[in-house]
Amino acid sequence: MNTLIALAFVALPFLDIASLIKAGSLFGFLPTVGLVLGAGLLGTWLVRHQGLTIGRSVQATLAAGRLPVVEAFDGACLLIAGGLFLFPGLVSDVVALALLIPGVRAALRRMLARRIREEAATVLWTSGPGGIPQPMDGGDVIDADYEVVRSESDSPSPARAAPPAALPPGSAEPPTIVRPKDPC
Questions:
Q1: In angstroms, rounded to a whole number, what is the distance separating the alpha carbons of residues 48 and 82?
Q2: How far lies 41's CA from each of 29, 48, 76, 173, 178, in Å?
Q3: If DSSP states are collapsed to H, E and C, what string results for the chain?
Q4: Domain boundaries, the chain
Q5: What phi and psi values does residue 162 have, to the nearest 5 degrees?
Q6: pLDDT of residue 138
Q7: Most CB within 10 Å of its CB: which of 78, 154, 157, 172?
Q8: Are the CB atoms for 13 and 90 separated by under 8 Å?
Q9: pTM above 0.90?
């Protein structure tokens, strides 16, 4: 994957030059320059407009108490698109304009998330006897994101707290009630 990205950055200037030569021979010099300048101006305006929109979305997400993961990825795509608009060429402008389309960014985000999930190693650790962490072996494991709704130990009523006899062996705290999180 890294080799592919490096190859793309090396090949991009050559592809841009070749596309400018081909467009110049098809349309002429002035229309080609106008096309490149127009794409650059349009791209600059779109990057600025979408950047401000993403900035407001980041503020709203943070105000809601969530991490702005989607917005950070979209911002990175806009940063790359803005950099691509600096190259005077048609191929880089097309790639940059594609990065400005929210559906393209969403598809890239899903593809990257799938790749990270496939390559990431996950080890589930549990609390063993005496509170010593140990890797969990065997059994079914359900991978899920969760958020704590309330802990039995946070309950104001002593009647709600789990009695010590109901606690799992080796557990120092009462069970915590959790619910699944919504994926991004």
A1: 9
A2: 18, 11, 20, 60, 50
A3: CHHHHHHHHHHHHHHHHHHHHHHHHHHCHHHHHHHHHHHHHHHHHHHHHHHHHHHHHHHHHHHCCCCCHHHHHHHHHHHHHHHHCCCCCHHHHHHHHHHCCHHHHHHHHHHHHHHHHHHCCCCCEEECHHHCEEECCCCCCCCCCEEEEEEHHHCCCCCCCCCHHHCCCCCCCCCEEEEECCCC
A4: 12-119, 142-180
A5: -70, 135
A6: 57
A7: 78
A8: no
A9: no
* Encoded amino acid at 77, one letter: C
Q: Tokens 């958020």 label which residue? A: 147
